[in-house]
Amino acid sequence: MGTELLKLEGIEKSFPGVKALDGVNLTVTAGRVMALMGENGAGKSTLMKVLTGIYKRDAGSMTYLGKKTEFKGPAQSQAAGISIIHQELNLLPELSIAENIFLGREKTGAFGNIQWNTMYREADELLQRLGVTRSSKTRLGDLGIGEQQMVEIAKALSFESRVIIMDEPTDALTDTETRALFTVINELRDAGYGVVYISHRLKEIFEICDDVTILRDGKFIAEMPVKDITEDRLIELMVGRKLEDQYPRIAVAKGNVSLETDNISAAGVNQVCLQVSEGEIVGIAGLMGAGRTELMKAIFGANPLTDGCINLNGKKITINTPKDALDAGIAFISEDRKADGLVLGLSVKENMTLSALRHFSHASGQLHHSKERDAVDEYIDTFNIKTPGRHQPVGNLSGGNQQKVAIAKGLMTRPKILILDEPTRGVDVGAKKEIYQLINTFKKEGMSIILVSSDMPEILGMSDRIIVMHEGCISGEFTAAEANQENIMACAVGKKR
Amino acid sequence: MTTAKKTLTTRLIEQKTLIALIIMVIVVSLLNPNFFTTGNILNTLRQTAVNAIIAVGMTMVILTAGIDLSVGSILALCGAISASLIASELPVFIAVTAALAAGAIVGGFSGIVIAKGKVQAFIATLVSMTLVRGLTLVYTDGRPISTGFTDVADSFAFIGTGHMLGIPVPIWIMAFTFLAAWYLLNHTRLGRYIYALGGNEAATRLSGINVDRIKIAVYSMCGLLSALAGLIVTSRLSSAQPTAGAGYELDAIAAVVLGGTSLMGGKGTIIGTLLGALIIGVLNNALNLLDVSSYYQMIAKALVILLAVLIDTKSK
Questions:
Q1: What total of structural domains would you count in chain B?
Q2: Which CATH class is domain A4-239?
Q3: How confident is the model over A197-212, as pLDDT tens digits?
Q4: pLDDT tens digits for A320-350?
Q5: Does the pLDDT value for residue B23 go beyond 70?
Q6: Half-sphere exposure (CA, 13 Å, Cβ side) for B25?
Q7: Which chain B residues have a beta carbon less than 8 Å from that of A342?
Q8: CB pairs under 8 A between A and B
Q9: Domain boundaries defined on chain A
Q10: Domain A257-492 fold
């Protein structure tokens, strides 16, 4: 065992309404690769933000190189030798590799003049160490994602880092690039760096990591050498929690198949066949980036289909735009309320009726104000939306209430098929339950519901049938009775069954 | 309840513009007793009309988070079209319709380039601005076109010089334009979509709204209103100048911004634009009455606009 570089102990961090981290430990040792694992929302990113000082921890201690340490921000932690390589790379495509590596720390001479030769030479040396054959004068934008990641690593090395943290580094990489990355990680380990490897890909953990730390719901679950654990045990530790009794599933007689996708492909979606019936909730599980949102956007006409077709009530329909989908009775509530769902500067009323404004105006295009007002007030009332009034800008509402406005907006179009993408993300517990009850009401009315969610208990608690996606394809399908967290997680990480 | 009364901030901004206008009127009245006379006020309003009408179109464009630099060029082209048709003694109705249609078509062209070609509004309308100015110079051969001394020309002159109930016709046209635009923005589907598009284009598209069509509509309307302004200018002078309207886009944008409309789109009111246009109009008139040289006028105008906008951003 090498020396301990970094030790986090008993880290706690709360946000209003949520305890994001509750007694979390993490140890990074020189010459070892530590995997940090957990489901979406387990607290991995929060922990990294506490580590680098973006968030201030509420309790717990941090020891770095044998000293109690406190970082005030990423600049400080990076200068101290802790580098994070984020999923989204922080590089400037129009600058050269060398300029990117030394951004803000350019080698300068006595008059503030940049010493280009020194910079290029040092950058070239770093690239060589990583086995990148490019010249450091190359424009960064000309590099593939894998090589760009190497530049990030080179940048980390140029800081004389001791600890290098990689957040989902292989998500955007091809197999060859992944292999190259692993070679570099092995070299970093041999050179005595401490590496933290965040990923949900089980295979990679077993291939490249020495130890694993598992988080679940913000709690520290276990730390152990990878050789002492099996894949199944790891999945169990990641998901093993009790279902809370907040999912009021109701039994509804299933009607006819309403929506059917016949082998559809689109950006991020590959040959998907999906069926949903009247009065049925179909849950779509999977990890981030599995293509769930892309599939929903393809069905809704927001992303074009490249192959396959969509049938509605047994008849083939053409959906080229969201308008076509809405006209066909399909409503989509986006996972990204702020970007895709709501116009934050407009009022509750204006947002709610935006999709269905035709129902609230005359053929001439003139608005029917009283009709609109009555409908909006009715929804505010039945959905229990907490707002000072219908004229309140929706951006001033809490997450849960914004979500209810978004759902109301979808329902105003009187859909027969309702697609909910992460309907309870960023929503507090009380509002969550209300949203579940609303979903059940729609189900009782015979609506077909597709529920995309990364929240395992939610998927298990609400769905009649669960479909799991992995890398754009359906990797598993379960009835509510068969499904459990383990078999869903196994399909979600692409484990062969 | 209307969208115009929507939020407290919008209401305050409107009041602020209104307060600024009132203060200005009082100060100028004290400095020069000739200012607050019926004659001068009507004169000021008439002079404001051209910029105000263009600013209405500009407001709609800016509400969608766009910009239209081509308004001055469209004004010149449509003025030239109307003047040449009047000079050939075609009926006024035909000349007016042709000019307005030309304005709407040119605006629609910009809209199509922006919506379908995914070109930034600034660039697309910069192209239109240059293109249309060139077309005007070709069409007029670089010379002013006189409407002539016929009966048709006399009736055409009514648009710019006539009076109804003692009030100059351009003021009536301005009032009607604002009323129509206010109604459109607050009481029609299209108006609601304009605000939504400016506030969040992706969400508006995903709400099943044909965003491209709204953009094209907005630039067409802006073109049509620029043509309307061109008719007033041409009718008043009884001739069309090929260089007319140069720089008018900046006055229109200034009026819109003074009126509290956000250049980021989605926020603003047509009433604010009216007040903004009046502030610029009163300022021009006051500087003339106070015998400020036209060189200093530009500097004064720039400073007043800067001050107003600074106060506006500070108080947000």
A1: 1
A2: alpha beta
A3: 988 777 888 999 999 9
A4: 999 999 999 999 998 888 888 899 999 999 9
A5: yes
A6: 16
A7: 200, 203
A8: 84
A9: 4-239, 257-492
A10: Rossmann fold (3.40.50)
